[in-house]
Amino acid sequence: MNDGSSPSRPKSAVALAVSAVAVIIAAGIGGLAASSATRDYALLQQPSWAPPAWLFGPAWTLLYTLMAIAAWLVWRTGPSPESRRALTLYAVQLVLNASWTPLFFGLGWRGFALVEICVLWIALVTTVVLFWRRSAVAGLLLVPYLTWTTFALILNFAVWQLNT
Q1: Nearest Cα to 106, choosing from 25, 36, 155?
Q2: N or C terminus: fewer CB in 10 A for the chain?
Q3: CA 142, CA 130: separation in Å to the nearest integer?
């Protein structure tokens, strides 16, 4: 019996599925724009510390999984203005996340992609804080994503500088 203090199992399962679908859509948008990303990435001048192209797929698979679980954990904290604010900002940063690959690879706008990833980083830091306030575990689950995004921002800058 659900006493209102926690979501029912069917609703919770639906929320987890919705969270997973949201990251799959974001990943799919990036994937469509990145159809030639491995080839394009190899053609770019890169800093010596740039990771190999094969690392991006496994890294993003793990990050998107952690993101989906984090959003689900925040949803499970129950309806409140704080949860809605956290999940709304999460959706915004997810759109920004999905937008970066088309900008960087699809359009080749590396300078604009750098500006965009800076905005994403700010949205993501704020999302981590808001998630942490709702669930420390949810906040912690976003830390690897924040770390990777920080690295990606620095790499974006370096690649932009080396290829202008």
Answers
A1: 36
A2: N
A3: 11
Q: How many CA atoms lie within 13 A of 74 on its CB side?
A: 32
Task: Classify 109 in phi/psi space as left (phi over 0), alpha (psi -120 to 50) or beta.
Answer: beta
- pTM value? 0.86
Tokens of 159: 């690649």
Per-position DSSP letters for 81-99, written without gaps between them: HHHHHHHHHHHHHHHHHHH
Q: Distance (Å, rounded) from C-alpha 49 to C-alpha 31?
A: 24
What is the rounded distance in angstroms from the CA atom of residue 148 to the CA atom of residue 68?
16
pLDDT single digits (tens) 25-78: 888 777 776 667 778 888 899 999 999 988 988 999 999 999 999 999 999 998
Encoding tokens for residue 145?
């994503």
3-state secondary structure of 140: helix
Closest CA to 140 of 70, 41, 58, 45: 70
